[in-house]
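Lab notebook, page 48
Experiment: co-folding of the full assembly
Goal: obtain a model of how the components sit together before planning crosslinking
Operator: M.T.
Materials (sequences as entered):
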Amino acid sequence: MTVLNVAEQGIRYLRACLDLYSENCAFPALYFAALIFLCAKGSERDKRIFLPGGVVLLLTVYNPLSPVILMHFFDVNSEYYRFFWITPAIVLVPYVATNIITQQKDVKQKIAIGALIAVLFVFSGNFLYANGYQKAENIYKMPPELMEVSSIIHENSDTEYTKAFLEYDYNMQMRQYDPKILLTIDREDYLYATSADYTQEMLHDPEHPQYRMLAALIKFDPVDPADFTDALETSNTEFVVVNKTHRMIPYLKQAGLYQVGETKERAVFKYDLKDPYVFELVDYTAVY
Amino acid sequence: MQILTAALGVIAHFIIYLSFGSLLTKRKEGELQLSLSLVVGFFAYYSLFFFVCIPVMKMYRPLSLLTAVWVPVVAMIVLCAVIFCAGSWVAKGRSILQSIRRHPLPAAILFAILAVQIVIVTTSYNFTLDASYYVAGVATNVDTNMINVYDPFTGAWQDHFEMRYFFATYPVSDAVVCQLTGIPALVQTKTVMATVVILLTNLVYYMIAKLLFEEKGHGTVLMLGFICLMNLFFITMFTPSLFLFTRTYEGKAIVGNLSVMTILYFFILLVKDRKVRLYWLLLFLVCFGSTTVSSTANMLIPAEVSILFLPDIILKKRFRQLLPYAACILPGILLALAFVAYVKGYFVFYTYPRW
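Observation: model returned without errors.
Model output:
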């Protein structure tokens, strides 16, 4: 929840956080409805199990002052929503629902109320596959093309480990499948590139050559091909993998890269480093 | 072949958890509580692994050394469990089979509920950013034969350990399994452990439902059906249900579902039954084990234990229970403070010796 900030929103933070957490799901509301039901009709045992915790939850986790107070000790901006996980909605709501059904004496009534509750659940929330179900194409749960790209890179590399610039989705997945491919861009740099702009100072920062690569290939900022090549040299990047329809492909060729392979949708470009870099694992044998 | 390996992997994990749990929960009188043994065994396994893993990692020793130390420990515990508990397992297995024969319809519904969820987590493709750390971390540890020394995102060497993840040794255990068996990190995390977590989480739901309905089978099955339905529809980017189905490989998914529910189970157990000492001991293991699974537990578990147990302790004036309560929240608080101290620059653990 990086969009929310306790310092800016103060006691309004909790409401905003809860809205984001539950979106249009009514289950948190159903939890409190179930608590009220227990108050009225629950057994002593059930009240003892669920009510004190529910009240304390309201006074603490669901208290608008809590995030403001906690912020004095910990940065809870992006993680306060995890306290909502303590709410035992996933147990209490189905428990009360089941009790309501089992208390009916007539079977037809049981079935009718059961169906009503099921419909209520369905319309109270968002279905896991509301946006469609995507079946994994292999047991690795990786796009087959990513696996092909990995093979192409290794076939065209002279070293065990090689460094590559990949587009966002492959960058986030490649090392799960193939840890021998080192990545030029880390997660934070990519998240920055997708949400903010590069200043001239950043583009000329010798410590962070990756900024130039992201500016050129992700933001489509004008970066001199020589500066781009310098970024490849400085960061020891040998491979650049982009979509075949990527508008900067002519730019890559102009910067001296050449295509060594392709898949259905991706093109793999190689850059010959002037001083080929061999990545070696740190030798710890001297330590022990 | 990979599917068969994954299935065997799930079975092997359950045998190991059952062994750990059986040794902890078995009593001379009464039959073995199979579900409780499995769930407690899970947390006991990762609690013990923590104490073996941390020194090896802190002293920059290779993953293979950790594997070489850990495997005999596990083998010894499984052997002890077989010697002392095999009879109970067989008896319990028979009693479960008899129960299934007596109540085939509820059993079939339960299996169907489980099957749906297992199919969801094992066959769907989900693109999640955090996998680029957790799953790649396992793959990197196996590939480099080191423990958390290289950055999972890029593969670059890190000069110090990232303290946010240092004490959460759960993914390192996955790396040990991968190194030992040759199972790829992606299969171990996204298929084997995802299935294990789904099964254990549902087992805890089952245990809670059984407690609440006091063994009335139909109520239990119906409640489990509603829980499954609710999990399938309580989906936003932040809910534990989403983590359970799409990010099952993450420690956060385990803490947000399995740990939170197991603590609730123990709370209900302690409200109903007063075999206080054993339950508090097992609860402590769950709390401590959770902190070794994900750093999210450091704030979540003390908060949950406090919200559930403190009112009961105060209302019933059971002030003696303040001591075990404090023990349960202490690991999370200590690790949270350690992280704050790291962020404030009071200490750092380097990945190489500084003489």
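Interpretation: DSSP finds 14 helices and no strands in chain B.
Next step: discuss with group before ordering constructs.
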